[in-house]
Every structure is written in C-alpha cells, then in structure tokens.
Structures
1.
Amino acid sequence: VLGTLRPGGAFVVQDYNHDGVAVFPRSEGFEAVVRAARAFYADAGGDAWVATRLPAALRRAGFVDVEVRPHVKAGGPGSGVFRWVGAFFRDFSEAFVARGLMTAEEQALFLSDWVAREADPDALFFSPMVVEVSARRPN
C-alpha cells in the first residue's frame, strides 16, 4: 500500500474490534451469539481484531503519523443501535446454528433473553468498537 500512495498521501481504514460488545443486564444467550459471530468470521477467513494489529503493520511498512480513534455506539431498547443488533443476531443466529457455531439451545436462550432485554427500559447495548486507523506516507 505504501508504494501506491503519493508522498504525503493518507491511508484510512475503519474496522471492528470485537472487544467490548455487550448487553446489560448480562445475558448468557447474547454472549453465545457473539462467540458464534466471531467463529463465523474466523471460519470465513476474517479477523475480528485486525484493527488492533494494523497500527504496527503500518509503522513496519514505513507509514508515519499513525493514529487510532475508537468509536462505540450504545443505546437502550428504543435506539436504532439496539434494534439493529437484535435484528442482526436474530437473522444470523439461524446460520450460526446451521453451521454448528452455536447450539439450538443457545439460540433459544439468546432469543428469549433478547425479548426480555427489549422489554427492559434500563437495558443497554454496547456495539463492537469501530476503530479508525489513519496514517500518512512520508514526503
């Protein structure tokens, strides 16, 4: 990548860091579906923590001014982020079970736990951290 940028050119990427994703009150079912999602990414050749390794790789490649900025979304049952994650995991939990990444019992626990969280006005969801990594090619 270093050779494809003009001198002084910027390289910016955003990717998830899967640490921090959580729902409160805690839920064993939610934790199971998160583990399954991470396994799903890994099975497809993905890396749920690539953003944590990117700064060092950029420095080794000769980039300068490497910066890391985390962004986290959070919200309760009425928020868009809460509704998004519920729909995402409801849909994908079927695929996780079909691929053997979580059991049908874990899926049922997740679904029942999530319904309870949706009805709890004090429930909170914290998204995986979106990490923005930027660097510059030296002049």
2.
Amino acid sequence: MTHYSNNQTPVVDEDKIIKTIDIKAPVSRVWLAITDYRQFGEWFKVKLNEPFAPGSRSTGVTTYPGYEGYPWLATIEFVEPETLFSMHWHHDKVFPELPYDQQPTTRVEFRLEAIAGGTRLTIIESGFSALPEAYRVSQIRSNTEGWNIQAVNIADHVAQHP
C-alpha cells in the first residue's frame, strides 16, 4: 500500500531546491516526525543530542549508510506548530581551514499543509548562492537526490509509526 504521493520532481535553481510530497497522515503526525528530535533522527538517519528549540543548536552525528560519523550541526530557526519548522545547517569541508561551526550554512524549511487525505510536505533548501561555485554545483546535485530519498524516508516512517 502506498502511503505517499511523490507528486513533484524537485524544483532546482542556483539557490534552492524545492521538494513536495503528499503523505497519507494527519498534519499532527507529520509534524511530530519532523520536530521530535528522536523521530527526526530515525528517518533522517542522524543521532541527535538534544531536542529542537528556536534559537538552539542541534548537534549529533550522521548514521546514514556511507556517511556514518559525519558531524551534524544546525541552528533551529522557526518552530511554528504544524506549519513551519526551519533551520540553518552547516556544510562540511567547504573551507578546509575553518572549523565545522564556521562553515557556510543553507536554510532548510519544512512546510506543512493539510490536504484531502493527509498532509502536503514541502521541503525547501535555500542559500546555495552563498557557497563557492565549484562546491555549489555538487552540493545542489547531491542534496536534490538526498531530499528525494528523505521525502520517502519520512513518509515511510510516518506509515510505520502511525
């Protein structure tokens, strides 16, 4: 049984990626999967150390196969209940001479909207234009594929844990 509709090929330009997926679950359930740091860690494949709170730092380590051990660092921006969750996350090795917490960031938004039969989740990652051009191209390509995978991961997680 399909529990989501992958209804949009990601929109990509030089500054942002937009990925939309319809999930057959109430907004409240999808919201919990995004904003509860333990559930987020399960489907996103990252072990997080602390809950998400506006203005706080989120730290942890990636558990995604092939990327195990990579650091996770994000600053939580907005937590608007059942509507918007956003953060700025750091990119690794853009400038090798800088520590991880000084690496450039992009902004990730999770926007939720109630639709007939479930939730429309729109994931927007923006700010790529601030990255060096050589890095920007590969990061947009990699993250576009990553959001395709993560959109399915969250839908699967919500379906497996109603």
3.
Amino acid sequence: RVLSIMFVAVLVAATFSFGCKARREITPYSPAASKQIVITPEVLKSGATDTLSFGHMRSGEVIKKRITLENSTSGPIVILRHVNTCGCTKLSYERKPIEVGEAATIDFEFDSKGQMGWQMKLIELYLAGSEQKLKIYIEAEIE
C-alpha cells in the first residue's frame, strides 16, 4: 500500500515537472502563407513597407512564413544586408542577385518565447541601388 502511494506521488510529481517545461513548438512553413512583394523602380526610389502577420500564437511557439520578392526593375536586385530589431526574428535568403523578371524567397521565423500580448517587430532590407529601405513589420498576438 505504501509503495503504491509513493508510486502515485512520483508519477504526479513527474507529470507536473514535465508539464511545466517551456515548450518550443515550431509550426512549419506553409506555401499558402507566402506573400509577394514586387520591386519596381518606384520602390527602389521611395522604399516600401509591408506587414507579415503571424496571427495568434502561444508563448514559446515558433512560426515560419515566406515572402517572395519579384524583380520588376530594369536591372538585377541584390539584398546587401538586413537589420532585425529583435533577436526573436530570423530570416534567411540566398545571397545572389535577383535577375529582372525573376523572384527570390525570404523565409522569416518568429520565436514567441518570452513574448506576451500584441507584438510588432521591424526588419529592414537594404537593396543595392535603392535610395530607401524595404521595411517588413512582423505582427503577432501572443497568449
């Protein structure tokens, strides 16, 4: 009888200790979640701003989204660098020119660990030959 009570107590304690650990769930990229930005001569001159919504998330969840950049200018486009305003955002892209009429993808990842409530983060892309930055805001509601 004492052994069964001890077993139940250990089982309950183990359940609580494993249940309280922070979860890092990664929601994989979905092709349906892709967004397209067309780079035109006007965008290179004046810049552009867009928002990538990550919707409702649970704290600790990681979601990936994708943006496609289409080159509608008269020459190749090169992403020189990017600046994140938060370590919770990551992006990856090929480090090669986007030829006229072609498109390239940028994968964005938002890690909501330690975040709560409505969040808006900024990522700035610096393009060769552009007078202004391309600003991508990442928006999420974290519970």
